[in-house]
Task: inverse folding
């Protein structure tokens, strides 16, 4: 019989019992009436029996053990990187803890220093009578010779006169501020009861630290005058009357002698106008003199009313430049 | 002393396995290990590969048992894993069906030749028990299987050796029921043609 794919598929399904009852009845009828269909069906059944007769193979007896071993190997393989990840995580955790601890220590140190500055004993009755824990400002005995403090190129010399009715308290505060600013200091010979004189010298930054530390009590002074010596003629100083701490800060913060003198000049003019024309707002001097050195001055603006609360932004001072300033505390 | 074997339904063992009961998983493995191994062996034709693939199958079952949702039976899910692994293995390795049986000579007067004639006879049925006693014929049958194309081989093995119905085969192989029917028919027709060629 010539193979017929459709018939073979029908007969194959018939052998496997995968036909519907109607199809099954139809195949049975075909096989009963057509000998060729019957013989084809017999051939297919015999061929199928060849595979059905194949003996079933049994799995190796140690298959279960092999499965367990395989799982254990995989578990080990998976645990290794897991351990690695854990170690890495532990290292990261340890590193974070170390950094946190270091940051906490640094923070505690900073806070401790701040707290120490706040609560440490303040020397009473002059710089020389401070507590043991505080380094007192050393004063040279009256009448002793005072070597001149040198000023490096780019710095300036000057004098800051602070007038106060409470000299002792002011002196204590100033001495403390000098000490904390890291400035070298010499007392002026001929100390008298009505005034205290310090000669301080240091970088612009350290002098400004001193000025900044005075800003909180600046209003307690009854007057402040800053004199800045001109480099070409020290006897003709620029006098800034009623100087504010911001102005003093800005003058010190300039990066050259000329700039400091120019700034002082600008503030001197501004403060003079302010004094003689009360109620008028004084515009920045660099608007009146464009192109001059004053244009580069970074200074606070005098205002019509209220205190100047602006924070001075100073350019970076020259580390080598020194400022020599004579602090005069004058009792009214 | 008789030992009573407790026949627990697969779904119960699966649930217990999913709950972490290793004894239940062992029971499932012991229950199906021979059938899985037999199917794999008939498909790949190598005992070592079959053992390795059976092992890989059960390892994968253990690893994936938690993901088994029961949309199909555990039985077809298990065989799907085994057949897929085996088919992938057969595709990777060219170990199977490396020689054609068309030109293989069988002595028509010998015992195997006579059995083949009986198989091809269209007027009487052959006793499978007699066929099974002939090692030579069994070896020939194994080689005939390996000569089939892999999709056809898988269908024949699952039907004639494992005894699955068409629906289960379709589920295992993820194919249509009609595809199972046609593949099986073509495989049997091809087998018969090969046997006829061998006896000529």
Result:
């Amino acid at each position: 019989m010539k193979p017929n794919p459709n018939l073979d598929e029908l007969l194959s399904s018939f052998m496997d019992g995968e036909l519907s009852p109607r199809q099954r009845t139809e195949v049975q009828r075909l096989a009963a009436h057509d000998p060729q269909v019957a013989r084809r069906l017999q051939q297919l059944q015999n061929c199928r029996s060849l595979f059905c007769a194949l003996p079933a193979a049994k799995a190796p007896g140690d298959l279960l053990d092999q499965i367990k071993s395989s799982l254990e190997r995989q578990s080990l393989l998976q645990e290794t990187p897991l351990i690695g990840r854990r170690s890495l995580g532990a290292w990261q955790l340890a590193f974070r803890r170390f950094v946190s601890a270091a940051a906490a220590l640094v923070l505690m140190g900073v806070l401790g220093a701040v707290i120490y500055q706040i609560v440490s004993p303040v020397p009473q009755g002059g710089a020389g009578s401070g507590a043991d824990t505080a380094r007192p400002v050393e004063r040279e005995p009256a009448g002793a010779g005072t070597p001149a403090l040198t000023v490096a190129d780019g710095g300036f010399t000057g004098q800051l006169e602070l007038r106060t009715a409470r000299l002792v308290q002011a002196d204590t505060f100033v001495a403390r501020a000098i000490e904390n600013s890291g400035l070298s200091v010499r007392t002026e010979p001929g100390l008298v009861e009505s005034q205290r004189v310090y000669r301080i010298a240091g970088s612009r930054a350290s002098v400004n630290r001193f000025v900044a530390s005075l800003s909180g009590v600046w209003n307690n002074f009854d007057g402040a005058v800053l004199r800045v010596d001109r480099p070409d003629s020290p006897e003709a100083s620029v006098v800034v009357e009623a100087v504010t701490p911001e102005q003093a800060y800005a003058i010190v913060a300039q990066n050259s002698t000329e700039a400091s003198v120019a700034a002082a000049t600008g503030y001197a003019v501004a403060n003079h106008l302010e004094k003689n024309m009360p109620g008028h707002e004084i515009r920045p001097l660099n608007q009146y003199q464009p192109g001059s050195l004053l244009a580069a001055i970074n200074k606070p603006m005098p205002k019509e009313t209220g205190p100047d609360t602006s924070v001075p932004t100073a350019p970076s001072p020259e580390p080598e430049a020194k400022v020599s300033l004579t602090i005069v505390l004058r009792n009214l | 002393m008789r030992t009573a074997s407790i026949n627990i339904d697969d779904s119960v063992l699966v649930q217990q396995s999913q709950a972490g009961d290793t004894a239940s998983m062992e029971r499932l493995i012991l229950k199906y290990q021979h059938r899985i191994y037999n199917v794999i062996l008939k498909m790949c034709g190598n005992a070592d590969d079959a053992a390795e693939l059976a092992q890989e199958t059960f390892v994968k079952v253990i690893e994936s048992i938690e993901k088994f949702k029961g949309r199909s039976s555990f039985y077809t899910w298990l065989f799907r894993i085994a057949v897929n692994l085996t088919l992938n293995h057969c595709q990777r390795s060219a170990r199977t069906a490396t020689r054609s049986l068309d030109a293989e000579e069988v002595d028509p007067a010998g015992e195997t030749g006579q059995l083949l004639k009986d198989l091809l006879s269209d007027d009487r049925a052959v006793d499978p028990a007699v066929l099974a006693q002939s090692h030579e014929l069994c070896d020939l049958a194994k080689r005939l299987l390996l000569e089939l194309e892999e999709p056809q081989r898988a269908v024949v093995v699952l039907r004639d050796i494992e005894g699955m119905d068409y629906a289960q085969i379709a589920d295992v192989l993820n194919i249509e029921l009609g595809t199972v029917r046609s593949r099986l028919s073509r495989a049997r027709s091809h087998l018969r043609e090969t046997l006829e060629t061998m006896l000529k």
